[in-house]
Structure formats: C-alpha cells, structure tokens
Amino acid sequence: MEGMQAYGAGKAGGAFDPVTFLQQPQTILRIVSWLFSIVIFGCIANEGYINRPQQVEEFCIFNSNQNACNYGVFMGSMAFLCCVAFLALDVYFPQISSVKDRKKVVLADVGVSAFWSFMWFVGFCFLANQWQVTKSEDNPLREGGDAARAAITFAFFSIFTWAGQSFLAFQKYKLGADSALFSQDYTDPSQDAAGAPYTSFGGDDLESPGGGGQTNSDGAFDGSGGYQRQDY
C-alpha cells in the first residue's frame, strides 16, 4: 500500500522529506516564480519612479504612466504572497486525508496558476508597450532603464513559470486516486449487502398450473402429506 497515492501524494500522516520536496518540479517552479516576483516588485518600487530635471515630483518611468508602475508593484507583491501560500499548502498537502479536499486544492492550483500566467502576460504587454513609447526627453539621464527592462523581462519569464505550475497541477488532477483506499465512492461491502433488499430465490412466485400455488406450497411442507413433487 506504500505506493498508493491520491493526487500525487501518498497516505496522510507520512513523514515530510524536505529534500524530496525541494526536488519536485512544482516546488522549483514556485520558488522561481517567487524570486521573479521579488525582482519585478523591487525593480519598479526602487527605481521605477524618477523625476525630471529641476522637478521634485516623481513620475513612473514607464511613459509617465502611474498605472503601469502601480500594476507592476501590485502584481509583484501579490504573486509573492501567492507563491508563499501555495508553498505552505504543498507542505501540508500530504497531510490532507480527504480525497475531496485534495481535489479542491489541486483544482484551485490549476485555476490560480493559469490566472497568474494570464495576468503576467497582460502585465508584460502593458509594461513593454509603455516602455516602448516612453519619451527620451522625460528621462534624459536614462535613469532606471536597466530596472525597467529587468521588470519587463522577468514579467515575460513569469508567464511560463506560472503556466508550468498550472500544467503540473493539471497532471496531478488527471492522476487522481489510483487506489481503492482513496476512492471517493468507496462503500463497505458488508454495509452494501446489509442494505440491499432481499430477493427470494423464486419460491414466492411458484404457482401450480391450476392457480393453487399457495395450497401446493403449504402441502409441500406438511409432514402428514409426505413428499410431494414441486411443479415449476
């Protein structure tokens, strides 16, 4: 029974192996996505706001569009938290004994990862477009250019890391439960037999050709009448 698994994890209550956990492809992708989110958030938050010469007020380096910087900072911070949450859930996942709960977690992983992949695609297109149309006179000293390009690059890479997580989660969903131990519709055979309606062998429906089925049956078990042949 040791090889039996449900949605990619064995029976609940097993010992946690950190080395095996860190070597799993899904864990690696989550850590990489986590690092990418830190880079994107840090690049925009630290160097994404500059000011023109002789001006104190700062503006977004992406075409002076405050929404672009806000989008990158928000996405980076939320992706960071989401990665941490799913890493913690991955650690706890083998301890979930209910197959239905495991199924919900895996489906949530598929949906959330696909959502983040799409959002990073939108973010990459948005930031790249705004950086392309940025006017050179707004930033004559070319401040923050490397940070802006790094944010765009890692936003592009995040599309594939999150898509990979969604794919691996979908593979776990397809794997499902390969053991009757984890079967969601498992029924105790003894309870199933006890709950089934009793069906007679057919003696209740026996009737003599003349319609005197009840009389014939009574006579068959009457000791005074001796043995009588039962007509079928």
From TrEMBL:
<protein>
    <recommendedName>
        <fullName>Synaptogyrin</fullName>
    </recommendedName>
</protein>
<dbReference type="InterPro" id="IPR016579">
    <property type="entry name" value="Synaptogyrin"/>
</dbReference>
<feature type="transmembrane region" description="Helical">
    <location>
        <begin position="151"/>
        <end position="170"/>
    </location>
</feature>
<feature type="transmembrane region" description="Helical">
    <location>
        <begin position="31"/>
        <end position="51"/>
    </location>
</feature>
<keyword id="KW-1133">Transmembrane helix</keyword>
<dbReference type="GO" id="GO:0030672">
    <property type="term" value="C:synaptic vesicle membrane"/>
</dbReference>
<dbReference type="Pfam" id="PF01284">
    <property type="entry name" value="MARVEL"/>
</dbReference>
<feature type="transmembrane region" description="Helical">
    <location>
        <begin position="71"/>
        <end position="93"/>
    </location>
</feature>
<comment type="similarity">
    <text>Belongs to the synaptogyrin family.</text>
</comment>
<dbReference type="InterPro" id="IPR008253">
    <property type="entry name" value="Marvel"/>
</dbReference>
<feature type="transmembrane region" description="Helical">
    <location>
        <begin position="105"/>
        <end position="131"/>
    </location>
</feature>
<keyword id="KW-0472">Membrane</keyword>
<dbReference type="GO" id="GO:0031594">
    <property type="term" value="C:neuromuscular junction"/>
</dbReference>
<keyword id="KW-0812">Transmembrane</keyword>
<feature type="region of interest" description="Disordered">
    <location>
        <begin position="192"/>
        <end position="232"/>
    </location>
</feature>
<feature type="domain" description="MARVEL">
    <location>
        <begin position="21"/>
        <end position="174"/>
    </location>
</feature>
